[in-house]
Amino acid sequence: MVPGAVPADKHQQKSPYTAGRGMPGAFEGETVTRRRLMTGGVHGLGIAATAAFALPALGFALGPVFERTKFAWQPIGSLADFNEETYVPRVITIVAGIGEAGKSTAYVRLRNPAIDTEPEDEFNKVIAISTRCNHLGCPVRFTQAAGKFICPCHGGVYDFRGLREGGPPVRPLDRFYTRIVGRQVQIGPRYSVNSQLRRFSPRDPGEPLDGIGQYLYPARFSTPKAPPKN
Length: 230
Hints:
- By secondary structure, the chain is of the alpha+beta class.
- Helices cover 16% and strands 23% of the residues.
- It has three helices and eleven strands, in the order H-H-E-E-E-E-E-E-E-E-E-E-E-H.
- Strands 1, 9, 10 and 11 form a four-stranded antiparallel β-sheet that branches. It has a four-stranded antiparallel β-sheet with strand order 5-6-7-8, with no helix packed on it. Strands 2-3-4 form a three-stranded antiparallel β-sheet, with no helix packed on it.
């Protein structure tokens, strides 16, 4: 190059045609080689085939996440059926339309001001405890003699209020909203609680709600955030 000369722009010198770029097997007027065209076509077909399988599967997996769960109030007996001293089991429907598989058991008692120190409102005058252990979801059973909830699978132990006492569970037993209509007790959707019995939208077993756990395990879109109005 002559000293002081301005170098030519490489982009301007490069030919848009394969023949001008000296590619082997190039044809006059060709801008894309046949190999590149075929490779791009194969890649495009591969992407289309992958999408045909992946998108329906993804929609099937994510669809229920955005579908809000419906839960109507269910009558479980009159106030006279329950007391403050012990729990009475009641079979309730968790998922309608699937028969026995959609049923579960709740342990129910009247609120006892001597031990139930969390704030009282219209939805917890009657205490309803879920039987699903918050370790792996195994069913727990209330043992009258010990006054505790026991999980026989992995040794989870909860006290009379459902607070964790021992074993691998990460939080207290879940609860159900309840209300009193006339003299009848009705049960509503499930909710989760932390060690201070603060309410949260339902979480899955193994998801703690104390400290950073409440942020690491956000609620699903499908779970109700408040009791149903009817």
